[in-house]
Protein 1
Amino acid sequence: MHTIKGQGVCGGVAFGRLELLKKASKLIQRSHVEDTDKEWERFENARAKASAQLKELYEKALNEVGEENAMIFDIHQMMLEDQDYLDSVKANIWEQKLNAESAVGITADNFADMFASMDDSYMQARAADVRDISERIISILTDSSNTGIKSDTPVIVGAEDLAPSETVQLDKSKILAFVTEKGSSNSHTSILARTMNIPAVIGADGIMDDKNGGADIIVDGFTGYIYVNPDMQTVLEMQKKKDKSEAQKALLAKLRGVKPVTKDGQQILLYANIGSNEDMPAVYANDAMGVGLFRSEFIYLESKTYPTEDEQFAIYKSAAQKALGKRVIIRTLDIGADKQVDYFEMPKEENPAMGVRAIRICLTRPEIFKTQLRALYRASAFGKIAIMFPMITSVSEVRKIKEICAEVRKELEAEGIPFNKNTELGIMVETPAAAVISDKLAEEVDFFSIGTNDLTQYTLAVDRQNAAADAFCDTHHPAVLRLIKTVVDNSHKHGIWTGICGELAGDMSLTELFLAMGVDELSVSPGLILPLKQKVLETNVSEIKEKLLSELE
Ligand code: PEP
Ligand code: MG
């Protein structure tokens, strides 16, 4: 057995024989031509054919994976018209007197290298696209399409970099998993793999070695490990993992579309926590009713400088559209403490968890805050966006935030930019101060979401980053549970709703208690939604309510 480690981009475990798909460009014969006009004509004919194929692929992808994923084939058609690309092919044919397939191959290498060396991860991912369109032209010129699976039985597909068009063309009934040597988690191949829900690993260096072709392998899309010719112990361990993940899938099939309602009819919303738009497919796959926490600070963490209003708008708009009318609660940036961003140039703090973090940065640097709010409000015209503010400790903070929101709305109105005037505004209750004055705060906002990670840290005086203090962190401490109940009661008294988006929301030993308290929403990582739904369906609140609540007194 030998092991290859890549990056898992779609969870699941697959066992099977590896079939390696070699690219047409690997088979190019380089030759010199005399009749350059004729060679250019060959290229132009191939390009027209490629364009027609892409049109067909667009229609196919539209039916199979939806408009957003199909868009890539539209973009590929446009890339076929790119003047710089055409000039480069022309120069290689007319000046270097190369045959058309070599001219395209050289152009593809140069353009892909140029994209790959760019700082922007989106542009880097475009290297695969330029290779993809070039492969298509070369396949037509050499009359050799290598994109099909040769085996009659299902296989694990190995490729250097599986292009989106290849992914869509493959007969899905024959694919157990994807493994590629190159690729990025941002690439369309990864996105498509996730949409198709097939285990996938990228960056699997060495998988294309000829000696791996035809080998029995196991792909673990959760960890990114690939076991080639696995030994018996690995087979047994991975079989267990596969069984577990299939059981989860069966659970999904059973509970999909079922409303989370207790036996005695109490309803609760089950939402998903996400870190980026890339997590949206997992939101659907797990049947989340909305997004309860979109941690927008990851946009700032992944950027080398302040993300612009337009950059943020594109991300929030896409999230709003992908949610298809479901609520998407986007938390404004929660920088500081464990999430440091160099370009913010924040002074070093002795105790950053209690320092100038999250909303405190936003209120002291309103220009950064306003940029994000403008992007959020603009996106509100495209779906059900709700805005949530982290690390609140006082009523005056919330009033200041609302003033800034009103300013932003006024500006947008004056500029004639559409937005939803009724965009819900909520706060995270994650400091003991906010929990204690939640009766006052409830008069100011539309909803609460309890951040139990920070609420526990601040209530128990246990640094959440300090593993040595873990022993003192009793996540079921009555002080934390009582504060949660106080917040829920105060919100209901003032006619607003309360959710929980900290990790405690997914602690199933507390689900009954949260239902007894009347928590309105639980927001958890997507994979926990269905097990949590199961728990809700099994619960009879009236049977346990009195006992559980009296234990808190
Ligand atoms: C929390 O504090 O519970 C929370 C959800 O926010 P974060 O973990 O991002 O601080
Ligand atoms: Mg927090």
Protein 2
Amino acid sequence: MFTAFLIKYAEIGVKGKNRYLFEEALVRQIKYALKRCEGEFKVTWRDGRIYVHALSEFDYEETVDNLKTVFGISSICPVVQTQDEGFEKLARDLVNYVDRHYEDKNLTFKVHTRRARKNYPMNSMEVNRELGGAVLDAFPQMSVDVHTPQVMLNVEIREKIYIYSTEIPGPGGMPVGSNGKAMLLLSGGIDSPVAGYMIARRGVKIDAVYFHAPPYTSDRARDKVIDLARRVSRYAGPVYLHVINFTDIQLYIYEKCPHEELTIIMRRYMMRIAERIAVENECLGLITGESIGQVASQTVQSLAVTNEVCSLPVFRPLIGFDKMEIVELSERIGTYETSILPYEDCCTIFVAEHPVTKPSLKIIRRHEQNLEEKINTLVQKALDTDEMIIVRWDRP
Ligand code: ATP
Ligand code: MG
């Protein structure tokens, strides 16, 4: 019975001169999400309103589910469209709408009319009053409540007339592509996919880098990260995932540096390499899943020492979150089940029993000098192993 959706967007509505760019990005992302749905659709965009029109049979649930992945959408309103054939016809259409959508008529309601076409012969107040009267005549059990109605009957008078009363919440945020690009350090854990989701939700396009350490980490661990990237790409659009072989660097650090500093030095090399790949790929920042105090390498002191090697800004959207909150988010966005699969990630292999929790930058730098002989060659070799995989939700 619904043949179209009105797409509402809150935040991007207030962007002044840039508004056009945001709307354009939103329309692009909506079209991209609809490609995954059965059926043919047309997206129209005029006067600050975006409509998705179904041109063929379509699967309502599937379409709504996919629209719910488009950042920038604040709500999705399934609408019934009718032709403007005079007020009598409109009143009949509205009564029909109420009849079909609300089995139990013991409801309070309000009619809210928006008249985009100012040549309509009645003003909005008059339309509200008359339509309200028509609904009351048809269903005497219903009553008007202008302050907190149970049902808000929205009527938009444009070239066609649109009727809706349901608003399905969208994911909010801003459309991907409206805010530059950043490089996500994506591991197989719970945190980094959520971090990627959160930054993408602010309109940032995401590339990703994964460091693996074969044979210490398995192909299954790598596949798990690819699957996580795919789950993030459901919201963020196609993700260019760089897989980097980190084994020799890890072994070299293990050989040359105190074992309790291994993790922190390793993290510094990950950040350095990620930054180089980021710069080559026009990313303007790095993203990690770090959160203060979660593990030894995420104390404030450790974060400061890790951060010191980067000049790009590092976005850490989970920095103030408790683990439980991160878990809840990951369940909601659909990454949790994959994240908790047990395959080794490269950090857990060489982990010391008592890693430093308050590393001193001076000491870490001094120990990194032990690596002088070979590290630049090894970093270059690691960069040369870059295997770039384009990951999409619709194509695993
Ligand atoms: P996550 O749950 O994201 O794995 P974590 O709690 O295990 O995080 P760490 O292992 O300290 O934390 O890693 C901190 C961050 O460093 C991760 O959130 C991720 O952004 C990045 N990172 C860690 N290991 C890797 C890896 N093998 N490849 C790419 N990035 C990594
Ligand atoms: Mg991890």
Protein 3
Amino acid sequence: MDDKPDPNTFSNYSAFNIRSLHLDIEVCFDSKVLKISTETKFTVKQVEPKLLLDTEKLNTRTVHIKVPESSDEYVEAAFELQTETSVGQALCIDLSKVGPLKVDQELLVKIVSETTADVIALQWMEKEETSGKEKPYLYTQCQSRFCRSLFPCQDTPGVKFPYTANVTLEKGLAVVMSAIIDGEGTATGENKMCYKFSQKQPIPAYLFAIAVGNLVKHDFGHRCAVWTEPEILDKCAYEFADVESILQIAESICGPYQWTRYDFLVLPMTFPYGGMENPNMTFLSPTLLTGDRSMVSVLAHEITHSWTGNLVTTVSWEHFWLNEGWTRFIEDKIKAVMEKDETYRKFLLNKEQKHLNDSLEEFERLQKPELTALVPNLTNRDPEDAFSTVPYEKGCMLLTYVESLVGGPEAFAPYIKNYVETFKDTPIRTKAWLEHLIKYFPAKADILKAQPWDQIFTSPGKSVVSIDLDNPLTNKCKKVVQKWIEASTAEDYDRMVAEYPDLKTWSQDLKIAILGTLREHELIWPEDKFEKLTGQFELRDTNNIELRTPWIRMGLKSGIDSSIEPALELVKTCGRMKFLRPVYVSLYENESSRQRAIDTFLSMKQYMSPISADWVAIDLKLKSEQA
Ligand code: BES
Ligand code: ZN
């Protein structure tokens, strides 16, 4: 188990070590195709007759290979695709043409391929679907296993490579990548431009990213900028003005920033996640644009991945918690610094427990409780099916618990930097994390060794270890929740509103915590009571989707018809699955809106990102999940 290879790749990555990758990419909006030629340099580590690479629904045209030690010429290589599965298929390249290979020899491989329609990694948008309606748009999402549908690769997080890319596209469009742009771009006949990019640090395939559209940027200081469509540039410039200071807080926790620039792209509403940590170009959802900077924790989260995830990277999706649990943990530390309140961490951890509970219930319902282990077994599984808040919240809780065992935040601070330094060049697995931890705190070795590690890593369900989450802010919220639960007459409701005249001015985080907890109680709200709550929190007009979502779900659960319109509005406009999916599920569970949910989905599907569309189809029982 300790050196279990990645079960979610078809590639023979331990036989052939990738050294570097060059891509020539042609973006064809007319045919919705990316024509990609790759040139990959490998070192032979074990002599095997075939090179196996991951692909999914890819048109592979030609493969050429060369061993520079024995020849200057590329030769054409035979290749075949192995059996197609729901997670792709191996491209099997016959190496016999270059003669018997030797260990440590260099092997060069050139592959010409084209993407196909409807691959999950790509969201193509017609110009009418964009804010400006003048230019088309394209973006990728490769995590977890979708890079293989763009070009043949070793699609496993433990394998990293530096890359360069030349991107050709029509004039008037801008392009960004998970890399740094090299120069201004050159005109290349027929109204086309070619842009060069370079990612000098080795990155795993899942961090490959490209986006094309009518993009403009706003600079924040010397190393950060936001890119987006011109229509929302000013909003972005305001919302994320703290980026440099967040980056500095992250540096004070994790060590110097290692990627030169930190730029980010605010995508169209269809983007399926809150954020995606593509190196040098984080992708963010426009749902963060609340106008009050209340959702910058997502930015803090993606910034943190610059250390935990992008420098220190999990060896496979089984150890995904080392990416996300660590990142959640540090995200909260950053937030506590920003709030100048160390107890804020407990409040945040507490606030997220309901999302953990939701995930646990969901896997229970799907009869897959084994996927709620901190380190799940993903052999014969699609890593996408295992994705949930579990690695985030159980991981964050474990690290917080460990922090308390070894002496608290002060004792932990130098360890965090040491952890990053130690593992930044090797993929990490859970056992290595634990060994390093114990070694780092020799005086605490006994207490650390005495923990029930086996259970912590493998038992399904709620966290095996936890800390006391009692804190003043949660208590403040609990009081409001309790009173709303107990209120049962019109007088009670009025008293409730009168008692908290300043509630409107409470921070969004507090309001989100209250609404989330009320939602979790699954009460059936009488309409007049719901109206009072709506008024007190100004929910009808809020543009904060973290507030709108629990409000809508509570209304639908209670059979309140006036919740249907806002719910439909939300699912039509928001692609971010954290909100889209639960609202669709609530619409589905409410009998009087079920058919409208299905009809809305069927009419919107073609405009949605393939990732969101895939999941919603499952949620609405229009498609069954893979076993
Ligand atoms: N890397 C994740 C997003 C992701 C995970 C995409 C797995 C595909 C597969 C990103 O860093 C993330 O965690 N985003 C969260 C942000 C939140 C926890 C602050 C999101 O999208 O909600
Ligand atoms: Zn993350």
Protein 4
Amino acid sequence: MRQATFSNKQDASNYVAQYIVDKINSFRPTPLKPFILGLPTGSSPEGIYKKLIEYYNQGKISFQNVVTFNMDEYVGLSPVNDQSYHYFMYNKFFNHIDIPKENINILNGLSNNIEQECKNYEEKIKKYGKIHLFLGGLGIEGHLAFNETGSSRDSITRKIELVPSTIEANSRFFDNDLNKVPKFALSVGISTILDNSEEIIVIILGKNKKFALDQTINGKMGSKYPSSWLQDHPNVLLVSDFEAYPKL
Ligand code: GLP
């Protein structure tokens, strides 16, 4: 795995944003040959989205021929709920760029047929052939998307029960009230990410991610810390700040 570490969050975010812009531009996407981009939510990618919007406003990038697949969504939150990942993505990114609505894919956590919803999502990704670049973040205990501890290498898009540490970590977005945090989510699986992506970039910021980043790089590959499965992909770039970097 390649690693790039920066003295601060801003530099790390700018680096990833520039990297994405260069990738998309050199790919020269067209309606028949779109660039397929996997996207995360969370506080870590926010700086990247801000910078991408800036580049878009400066005319340095267009998302007209980009198709996106988001990693995950809570079960039971409506897209207008400001804590849903739908809301996050439109509010922080999609509403500010030129991506056509039909190019945006986010799992529907309100579906009354969850199994079918997950199956369709997995099939739609496969239909495009590959995800050119999957951007991800890490949970404090090494979850990738919502692949909690126990997620196997061959896991695909599915409904996942959130573990207590994730509920606690994410309660900061729900008035610090554990009861308000959804207990289930839909998420792409480890196989969905590893077996469909040409390249994976993970953004890891802040000292509370030190443990997760350490497990990702140095941990024994396995289900205990699912981000360690990234070791099983040939083209991963881990971008962190000094605070998150285990040896610093
Ligand atoms: C949530 C998301 C993950 C994300 C993680 C870290 O649990 N499902 O995809 O990587 O949060 O978020 P943050 O960057 O806010 O620490």
